[in-house]
Specification:
The structure holds two protein chains of two kinds. In chain A, helix 2 runs antiparallel to helix 3, helix 3 (46-70) runs parallel beside helix 8 (143-168) and helix 6 (93-129) packs antiparallel against helix 8 (143-168). Chain A has helices at 2-16, 19-40, 46-70, 72-79, 82-87, 93-129, 131-138, 143-168, 173-188, 190-199, 203-215, 225-230, 236-263. Chain A is mainly alpha-helical. By secondary structure, chain B is mostly helical. Helices cover 65% and strands 4% of the residues of chain B. Chain B has 15 helices and four strands. Chain B has helices spanning 2-34, 38-42, 48-54, 59-75, 84-97, 102-113, 123-136, 142-153, 158-169, 176-192, 196-209, 213-246, 253-258, 287-312, 319-329, and strands spanning 275-278, 283-286, 343-346, 351-354. In chain B, strands 1-2 form a two-stranded antiparallel sheet. In chain B, helix 6 (102-113) runs parallel beside helix 8 (142-153), helix 7 packs antiparallel against helix 8 and helix 9 (158-169) packs antiparallel against helix 10. The longest helix of chain B has 34 residues, at 213-246. The radius of gyration of chain B is 28 Å and the shape is globular. Chain B starts with a helix and ends in a 5-residue tail after the last strand. In chain B, 30% of the residues are buried. The chains are: A mainly alpha, B mainly alpha. The A-B interface holds A 38, 41-45, 48-49, 52-53, 56, 59-60, 133, 136-137, 139, 184-185, 188-189, 219-220, 223, 225-226, 229-230 and B 53, 56-58, 60-61, 63-64, 67-68, 71-72, 98, 100-103, 107, 173, 209, 211-212.
Chain lengths: 267, 359
């Protein structure tokens, strides 16, 4: 465990030194702040525009960071040949993979918390200024739902880092990025596959579609942004089940990445 | 040496700024050729299901973008230039992307249903949007309540309005006062159809809850009109009492006030102007309201006269012919003169005017 934490620590330090990270965070902050401009021309839908744009900004930037830093996690070490140095120490390959994942997961946690706090301050500012209007239109402030939405977005990042890590362990960064984005796109439309499985007449195709639906990451399940605006059911059961789903899926991805990485030969 | 190297980026920045500045006239010309809102019109051909796919799950944000674009497009056009089909399509897309966006149904439905100048007069399209909103948000009371207003004022379907008032009153989370108020509205619409008391209450709610300044002004104008009509009725009652008491009409509204039949004198009309006698119908009327109604009546009759000419090649030969055309070939009624006077018609020009001029 100490070795995993050591790799994670190094990954975290390396990640926060990455310039790409800062440009993406800056972009997210600009997007979040620009929501104020859009809100001002939205016919009094301030609360909705700020939350929608802000939460989407956190989600898009978080996914971009997960993908672009995730795809380089293993590949960079191999390319720079630093991996020889690492494996000359008593570190097992699975510890390396888990450590790398943990390091980026912590980086994303810090960034997500930072972006969420900026957005929350903005939401508070809007809600204090237009309290009556927002209560009338939306019937409440839904602060808990707001933080649940951010938490669910973070769970999605954790799964996306896992996907990027799997691809990063056997192919080039460009291909990894492409594959990861494909999987994200499919994962975002998982309910369409389910619908197809329910409506198709051939039992074989239905079974196949159902299997695909169960295997691909159901990223739609991590979207409760709408509840942050209108309120709705984000009860403890949903939070628990979604967290467990994210953990199990990520664990499966890490095991897959480890299997691939274990078979890799370094010349 | 260092001064030289410092100048270089400065020169580069100046060149960059100059190039951007030079490109602006070209952009303006391209906009002129292609049209500023080309992409907005194109959205008529985009379905919400393809937009959902393109949004990659960020449906709510896409709905917001469409919302802002719809507001900007319709804010930049005069009522005559606005395309009702495009507006309906916009709000249909917005509410497909974000079915819980209650304000989109409310704004879109009301704007479509209300007659010009505040809306597009597409009542059924507006109702369709409200119906969609009610089905997607079964617990929301505002949607059935505002759809009831539409039914009450425009198609004047009081039974349907009563049904919707009742539906709104049964929604969860309403305060007992609000629940009672809606139940009262339902009973009133059901029992008495269109009545001023209920109309005033509805406009009052619209005034208090509408987010749009224009609509609030419209609601206030209606409230003032209803209050003025109530004063007209009260003063006409006093006039009848005066005639019963003295056996003749008073010489002026002031004479009526001096007689003591009207307590506290002749009140001010909330719509402005003054109260005047309408001897033909033995009533007291507001000059301002009468002027508005005469204006509406003559505008309507002149439009129908022009329509008659378009269909038959010439203006109607008399006011009677125009009356028959309106009653037989349109769904509207011939407007009554608010002061009981006559409309004067000129068959040469096809123009209709009031026989009396109200100051």
């Amino acid at each position: 465990m100490r070795r995993i934490l050591s790799v994670a620590h190094n990954t975290f330090i390396e990640a926060i030194r990455d310039r790409v990270l800062y440009s993406l965070i800056l972009f997210a902050i600009i997007m979040i702040l620009s929501s104020l401009v859009f809100a001002s021309i939205s016919a009094e839908q301030y609360n909705k525009i700020v939350k929608d744009l802000g939460l989407t900004a956190i989600s898009i930037i978080g996914i971009l960071i997960s993908v672009f830093l995730g795809i380089g996690l293993v590949y960079k070490e191999v390319e720079r040949k630093t991996v020889y140095n690492i494996f000359s120490k008593p570190i097992k390959r699975y510890e390396f993979i888990f450590g790398k994942y943990l390091g980026l997961g912590i980086t994303l946690f810090v960034i997500t918390v930072g972006m969420a706090l900026i957005l929350f301050l903005l939401v508070l500012l809007i809600e204090i200024r237009y309290e009556g209007l927002i209560s009338f239109y939306y019937g409440g402030h839904y602060y808990a739902e707001f933080f649940n939405a951010v938490y669910f977005e973070y769970l999605e990042f954790l799964v996306v880092i896992g996907i990027a890590l799997v691809f990063s362990s056997f192919t080039t960064p460009i291909m990894s990025a492409l594959f990861t984005f494909f999987v994200i796109a499919i994962g975002r439309f998982s309910s369409d596959i389910r619908l197809f499985a329910e409506e198709v007449k051939s039992p074989f195709t239905a079974l196949f579609s159902e299997a695909v639906y169960r295997i691909i990451p159901n990223l739609e399940k991590f979207d409760v942004r709408s509840e942050a605006v209108y309120g709705g059911i984000v009860n403890p059961d949903l939070i628990l089940y979604t967290t467990v789903y994210a953990v199990i899926y990520t664990l499966a991805l890490l095991i897959l990445a480890t299997i691939i990485f274990e078979r890799k030969e370094f010349k | 040496m260092s001064a030289r190297t410092a100048i270089k980026p400065l020169i580069a920045l100046v060149i960059l700024a100059a190039l951007v500045a030079v490109s602006i006239p070209f952009q303006i010309r391209i906009d002129e050729i292609r049209g500023k809102f080309r992409s907005v019109e194109e959205s008529l051909y985009i379905s919400s299901s393809s937009l959902k796919k393109l949004s990659l799950g960020y449906n709510d944000l896409l709905a917001d973008i469409y919302w802002i674009r719809a507001l900007q497009y319709f804010g930049s056009k005069t009522p005559g230039e606005q395309n009702p089909e495009l507006l309906y399509h916009y709000f249909d897309i917005i509410t497909d992307l974000d079915p819980k966006f209650v304000n989109a149904y409310r704004y879109g439905g009301t704007f479509l249903a209300e007659p010009p100048p505040f809306g597009l007069g597409e009542t059924m399209k507006g109702i369709e949007l409200f119906d969609k909103g009610r089905s997607n948000n079964p617990e929301n009371y505002k949607l059935p309540l505002e759809e009831a207003f539409i039914y009450y004022f425009y198609p004047k379907d009081y039974e349907k309005a009563a049904e919707l008032f009742r539906e709104a009153s049964e929604k969860p989370g309403l305060s007992p006062l609000r629940k009672a108020s809606m139940t009262g509205m339902a009973a009133s619409a059901h029992a008495r159809g269109g009545n001023n008391e209920l109309s005033r209450k509805i406009w009052e709610i619209i005034y208090e809850t509408s987010p749009s300044d224009g609509r609030r002004e419209f609601a206030l104008r209606n409230i003032n009109e209803i209050d003025t009509m109530a004063l007209e009725d009260k003063l006409t009652e006093s006039l009848k009492e005066y005639v019963n008491r003295y056996g003749r009409l008073p010489s002026s509204p002031e004479d009526l006030a001096r007689s003591g039949v009207v307590k506290n004198g002749i009140p001010e009309a909330p719509v402005g102007g003054k109260f005047i006698f309408a001897p033909k119908i033995e009533a007291i009327k507001s000059s301002e309201l009468s002027k508005r109604k005469i204006q509406e009546g003559t505008t309507f009759l002149n439009a129908k006269s022009a329509r008659y000419k378009k269909l038959y090649g010439d203006y109607p030969r008399s006011l009677d012919e125009l009356r028959k055309f309106i009653e037989l070939e349109t769904t509207a009624d011939f407007p009554a003169h608010p002061l009981g006077e006559e409309y004067v018609y000129d068959p040469e020009t096809g123009k209709v005017e009031s026989s009396v001029v109200v100051d």
